[in-house]
Amino acid sequence: MGDFLKMFAVIKTGGLQYCVKPGDVIKINKIDVEPENSIEVSEVLMFSDDKNTKIGTPQVSDVSVKLQVLRQMRNEKVVIFKKHRRHNYRRKKGHRQPMTLVKVTDIVVKK
After folding, report:
1. Rounded CA gap, 27 and 39, in Å?
2. Separation of alpha carbons 92 and 81, rounded Å
3. Which of 29, 35, 38, 96 could bridge across to 14 with cysteines, CB 3.0–4.6 Å?
4. What integer pLDDT is reported at residue 5 of this predicted model?
5. Beta strand pairing call for 8-13 and 78-84
């Protein structure tokens, strides 16, 4: 099994949930923080390490996750295409969602 079950947390940010370990690099919905700054996410839904597992009801109160912002970016383009056949109706739009690339630096357990 190895490193996967050492320490991880399930966090919620931007309406989505992410399973993270220290050292992971993930893309999350945009947060207004300059690159190279750190933020702390206290919305932890589940935490597990070598010894125990804590499941929040709805959140685990004494655990937080520290994230370092690497850069602001935009996600891949999503193409929206509408068509009504035999009516010469075609509409094509594109959308690129703003994202933030972050690195999980630490999972902090307050005792």
Report:
1. 14
2. 5
3. 29
4. 54
5. unpaired
